[in-house]
Amino acid sequence: MPIPDYQALMLPVLRLAAEGQTRAPEAADKIAAQLGLSHAERQEMLPSGRQRVLHNRIHWAKFYMSKAGLIDTPTRGRFVASEAGRKLLATNPASIDVETLKAYPTFMEFYAASNTGSASSNETPASVGSMIDSTASATPEEQIDAAQAVLHQALKTDLLQRILAQSPAFFERAIVDLLVAMGYGGSHEDAARRLGKTGDGGIDGVIDEDRLGLDRIYVQAKRYAPHVGVGRPEVQAFVGSLVGFGASKGVFVATSSFSTPATDFVRHLPQRIVLIDGDRLADLMIEHGVGVRVARTVEVKRLDEDFFVEE
C-alpha cells in the first residue's frame, strides 16, 4: 500500500505516543508493521536522498502535533503524548489533521506566524517560508523536492533547446567542456586538441580516459532534433569504427534518444560502449556545472541537538 501522507499519520503517531515515550525510528517501525508496508516502501527515500519518506512524514506529523500541545518532548529524541493528546484520543477521533489542530490556540499562533512569514528559523525545522496548507498531503521537504524537480526538468529542456540552436562546432566544444569537467582528457587544452578534429573513420574525436593517457575513449557526437532518434545502424557503424582502430571504449553522445534496438545492441558487445541521450546529457551538464550557473541557494536548517546538551 502507498505510504500515508503526514496528516493521515498523525493519529497513529499520537496513539503510539500515548503508550509511552518513543523515538521516531521506533514509531516508524511499528507504524510500518501496522500498515503492512513492504520493505521497499519502508526504505523509500525522498527525491533528495537524505531521508526516508516514512520517517520524514512521521517527523512532521509529530512536529505539528507538538505545536498544538498534543505531544511533549521530555528528553532529547524522545516524545510522548501530553495530557491534551490523551484527552483527544479519549474522544475516539476518526482522524487527526491540520484542521483538527486548529482547535488548539498554541497551534493557531504557530499557524498564523508561519503563514505570514513571521516565524523565526528556530520555530520550524527546515522551513523555507512555505505555508501550512491543510489540504496539502506533502511535507515541506517533499514540496521543496517537487519544486526542485520541476525547475530541474525545465532547465534540462532549456539546455537542449539552446544546444540545438548553436553550431556543430559549439556542440563539440560543449562535449569537451563536459568531459573535462567529469575528469577526462587531462587538461582542457589536451582534450580540445583531440576532440572534433580527427574527422576520420566515423569517429568524431578521441580523448584520454585519464591524465596520464593510459587509455583512450573514442567519441561520436550527434546533434539531432528531439524527434530524430539514433537507431542501431548508426551505433553499429560507430562500433565498426572502434574495431578498425582497435579501440575497446566508446561514448556515443546524442541530443535526441536512442532506439531500443540500439541500446540492446551495445549490451552484448565485448567493447564498452556508453550511450548518452539528450536527457542524460542535460543531467550531466547540470551536475557538472557546464552551461549552467547557480541562480539561487536555499539553506534548510535543523536544530543542532548537541548544542542543547548540558554537560
UniProtKB/TrEMBL annotation:
Matches recorded under InterPro entries: Mrr-like_N_dom, Restrct_endonuc-II-like, Restrct_endonuc_IV_Mrr, tRNA_endonuc-like_dom_sf, Type_IV_Methyl-Rstrct_Enzyme
Keyword check for Hydrolase: yes
Keyword RNA-binding: no
Domain Restriction endonuclease type IV Mrr residues, every copy: 165-285
Entry protein name: Restriction endonuclease
SUPFAM superfamilies: Restriction endonuclease-like (SSF52980)
Source superkingdom: Bacteria
Keywords of the record: Endonuclease, Hydrolase, Nuclease
Residues of the Restriction system protein Mrr-like N-terminal domain: 6-90
Pfam family, one: Mrr_N
GO-annotated molecular function: endonuclease activity
